[in-house]
Structure formats: structure tokens, C-alpha cells
Amino acid sequence: MAMRNSMDMSPAPSKEQMAYADLLFYGCWAGLLVMLITYTLYVSGILPPHVPLERMPEYWGEAVSTYLTKAQVPTGWGWTTLLDRGDFVNFVGVVLLAGLSIFCYLRIMPGLLAKKDRIYFILALLQVLVLMFAASGIVGAGAH
Amino acid sequence: MKQRITLAFLVPGILLAMMIVTFIIYAPDSLAGAAEANAAAMAGQSALPWWAWPIILLFFCFILGIIAVMAGVGGGVLFVPLVSGFFPFHLDFVRGAGLLVALAGALAAGPGLLKRNLASLRLVMPVALIASSCAVAGAVLGLALPANVVQLCLGGTIMFIAILLLCSKNVAMPHVEKQDALGLALGIRGSYLEPSTQEVVEWKTHRTLPGLLLFIVIGIMAGMFGLGAGWANVPVLNLLMGAPLKVAVGTSKFLLSITDTSAAWVYLNKGCVLPIIAIPSIVGLMAGSFVGVRLLAKAKPKFIRYMVIGVLLFSGAKALQKGLGM
After folding, report:
1. Which domain holds residue B196?
2. pLDDT tens column, B204-238
């Protein structure tokens, strides 16, 4: 059984945990809002897509490699050159969500360093490196 | 109270309505303007127009979100086998969307869990580093393997999850006599307020090293299949490492926001994220989760749990069938 005591007050999370939570809250809802706006721009045709919507059924049933070749879609960060296209502008919101954890870790690192919590500072640093490595496209770019 | 319930249904309702109205107003116009291309696109594929699928997906994910919350499972574990089995989308794109679905749900839940101490950053940080590194490897592996092999492995995994859900009996407050050296060195302990008793529950972990090592496997599977791995996180954190059930569930949910991030980047960079599939899935599932939380009090969780186990067995069998090319 976990130890219990009867203090009638909620235990406060650490400063780092609160800082992480605050950034996560605003970043997450901002990302979802951006996603909704860009998706509306996409399906409404206000921003014309790189791959026409009516042609999507040709591609979504095929393997990703076929889609990339037939639809001439860039991999890695190549989508940033197509931000004026309705389909690729959606990646702004997706990337905001996917990159949020990196910013949250960067946000708490100075606090960990100030507390001389070296182990967790190193863990945070390594985590940022892992996420940046994943985001870099080194392991992702190029069709299989 | 009545106002809060109305709001709870109003917000997801507005989200769903906005997306459907957008489709209905604009989609048929663009469809009419490209009738020829559409006819070609339809050849040998679904008889439905392109815009019908995102709408069906939106509703499907809305229902999935309600069921997932009531059954206590993440959306991803239901999303990938069901959508890959019953929608015309390739597994590559379903896994990409599945990871984003799990990621968005975890990011949205994270702040509340952290602020109430139901997710522990000290517990998450070492676990997340291992799981997310392995999720990158799992994603690369999953995208390198032929689709039928991944379907076969996915089918086997989904069936295993169904059996795990059927058999596992998590413990609300595991007994941790003495914290192990690694857990002590990492300072993995915490406390939270239990609202039912108004008591502060203090906890610590044991068997930290074997627990951390298991996250290698969990990370690989999460990345390989595009599943949120809550089904595996919770038993390891609760039964093996001794975290109270509430902390295990909260920490697991928050952990997905980091594990799935790393795998999501790989899928994104490989071109496996199609907004036409991913965005309605995310919106539908999140709206469904909002409603599911509200319906939770009235639902019969046991019935829903068995229903989900049945659905998982069925979708696992479907994935196996697809993998075998039958």
C-alpha cells in the first residue's frame, strides 16, 4: 500500500512541472486551432492544394512510396517550400504539436540547472537531442 | 450543472458541425469542377466521392473517442486496426494519423494531469527518453517492413492487447516496501490528493530498472504500429514499478505526448501524414473524448470494456486476415 497521510491539502507540483504544464496547455490549444483553420483553408479550396482533393482516393490506398512518386510530394522538411498550398499549410499545426515537447523541455532546463539537478538536466538535454534528431528528417526523409 | 453538461456537448458539437458544414458547402463545388479527374480516381476504388470519407471518418472517430474513454483505452489502439481494416486508406497513412491522434489526446490531457500531480515529470523523464528513442527505431523498422508483415504483427499485437485487457487486474495502491537504489537516485516519488477521501497519497517506485528496460519494447511497438502504448504503459508503471493506478494512468497518458512525438516526426518526414485523413481523425476523436468523459458516469463500464475487447479481437483478426492476403 502506498503511504498515506491525512493532510487536507493538495500537494503542489514542482516548479518545473508547472512550467511544463503551462507551456503545454497554450501550445496544444494553439496547435489545434491552427490545424482547424488550415484544414478549413484546405478543404474549402481557398488555398489550392498541391495534390487535388478529388485525386486523393487514387493515392490514399497506395503505399506511401507510391504516393510520393505519383503525386510528386517532397519528404522531410521539403513541405516548407509548399506552404502556399492548402494541403501542406496543414503541416504548420501538425509541426507545432509535434514540436511542443521540445520547447517544454527547453523551458524547464534552466530550472533544473539552477537546482543543480544534474541527472534530470542531462535527461532533458538527451531528450531534446532525441526529439530534434527525429524531427531533423535524418531517419525519415526519403521513400522506402 | 445543467449548464456545464450543455457546454460539454456544445463544444464538440460545434467542432463537428463546423467541419461538416465546410465539407458540404465547398466540397461538392470542387468536385463538380473536376468531375473527370474524380471519375478516374474512383475507377476500381470506392464508389463514394472523396469528401464522403473524411466525413465518415470524422463521425467514426467521434464514436471511437466516446468508446475509448469509457473503456479506459487510448484512441490509437482502436483507431489503427479499425481504420486500416474498414477504410480505403493504406496502413502507412493510418499509422501516421494514429500517432497524431494519440499525440493530440496526450498533449490535451497533459497540463491537467501535471497540475494535479496525477502525472509525474520525474517518473516520465527517464521513461520517455528510453521509449521515445526506441519509438524512432520502431517507426523506421515499421516503415521499412512490407505492409503485410506489419499487418500480421499488428494483428498479433492487437489480439495480445485484448487478452491483456481481459486478464490484467491493476492494483489501485500497490505495496512498495522499499524503494530500489535507481528509483531513489532518480528521486522518483510523489504525492497527489485523492478526492474521494481528501487524503494526500504518497508514492514511490520499485523495480525501476526492469521497468525502464520494458519501455524499450513498448517504444518499438508504439513506433512500429503507430499505436499509443497506454495499454502497455499502465501495467508496467502500476504492476511492476508500483506506482498507484491513478498516477500510472495519468503518467502513461502524458508519456504518450513524448513517445508518440518522436515516432510522429519519422512518419511526418516520410510523407505518411495526409491532412485529409489525420485532421478529421484528431477532431473527431477529441470531440468524442469530451462527450465520453461526460457520459462516463451513466455508462456501464464493464459492458463497454467487454465490447472493446470484442472489437479488438475482431479488428486483430481482420488485420491478420489482411496480412495473410486472404
Report:
1. 2-37+49-323
2. 999 999 999 999 999 998 888 877 777 788 888 98
The three cell numbers locating residue B300: 456501464
> Could you report the per-residue pLDDT of B88-147, keeping only the tens digit for each?
999 999 999 998 998 888 888 889 889 988 899 999 999 999 999 999 999 888 888 888
Please check whether residue B153 lies inside any domain of the structure. yes
CA distance, residue B186 to nearest chain A CA (Å): 7
Residue B121 in domain:
yes
Contact assignment for B265 to A131 by CB distance below 8 Å? yes
Q: What does the block give as the cell for B39?
A: 471519375
Q: Comparing C-alpha atoms, which of B262, B215, B255 is closest to residue B120? A: B255
Contact B114 A20 (CB under 8 A): yes
pTM flag (> 0.90)? no
Chain position carrying cell 500537494: A11
Q: Which of B15, B257, B279 sits opposite A90 (nearest CB)?
A: B279
- Its ipTM equals 0.88
Nearest chain A residue to B185 by CA distance is A119
Tell me which residue in A39, A62, A133 faces B90 most closely, judged by beta carbons: A62
Angle between helices B75-86 and B147-167 (to 10 degrees): 140
